[in-house]
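The instructor's notes for this session suggest beginning with a concrete chain rather than abstract definitions. Hand out the sequence below and ask the class to guess, before any prediction is shown, which regions might be ordered.
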Amino acid sequence: MRIAIGAVALTGVVVSAVGAAVFGARAGGSVAAGAAIATGNLWVLARVVAALLPDELAPAEDPGAVAAIFADWQSCSEDMHELVDPIQSQYREFFLVVGARYQGQPVSRCVYIWVDKDFAMYRGWIQGFPKKLGSINMTRLFAAGKATPKLVQGARFGATCTANDRQIARLAITLEHVSQTGPTVNDPPMYNSRHFPAASGTEPDVFELVRAGGRDRDATPIWEGSAELRLYDDTIEDLQAIIAAAGAPPVLFGHSSGGVLSLKTALRGTPQRRLEGEHAA
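After discussion, reveal the predicted structure:
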């Protein structure tokens, strides 16, 4: 069982689709974001991951790999006004990301996600991330004090996610050393699906594959260590397939990373508009 933890910052978080539509904190704006992130890799049956991919995406080279990510975010629009009104900028998330291929190139896709603020949930829907509300807590880092861990060997961290009064996930980490490899499953560009049902009828108003990304990344050293992750089966979410494939209740992890972190559920079975060309993220 391996996991890693670190911090990352990035700017220019956008989503591009057919017609190069761009979405940010405001219409026409961009988002700068910083986060403390704990990311780990677990392996499940390849067919479980394949069932979460739309027709446009093929399985990854490592088809059963899943990244489980806890993130404590602070995001700002271009004028950075949220820094003096932090209720507008701070939120936490827990999500599961799988690997895939798009036109032969490695990509990633978020298949489940929970967030604790409504503005981040609504922004995620616009960007193709089907976020749900939940309660996420993470061990916090401070510059001084005995009640805070440091990024050193033996430091211990934890994180939890609940939703609808049910436990979703619990993570416990013990740091060992600086990671030499960095992100894996969630490192490639993320391809999500924007899905907005019509007010009537069965044909959705919006159903398209989009690419999310960022620029100007800035990250601290990433620490790696041992960990246990528990995904709970007493939920109303469809996590049972992943739990059954992973085996024993505690499963573990890999490497921490920076990037645009969010998720989505599979939309297999209905034609989607396809991405045309490359759109900078």
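Then share the key points. The mean pLDDT is 73. The helical segments are 46-50, 118-127, 240-246.
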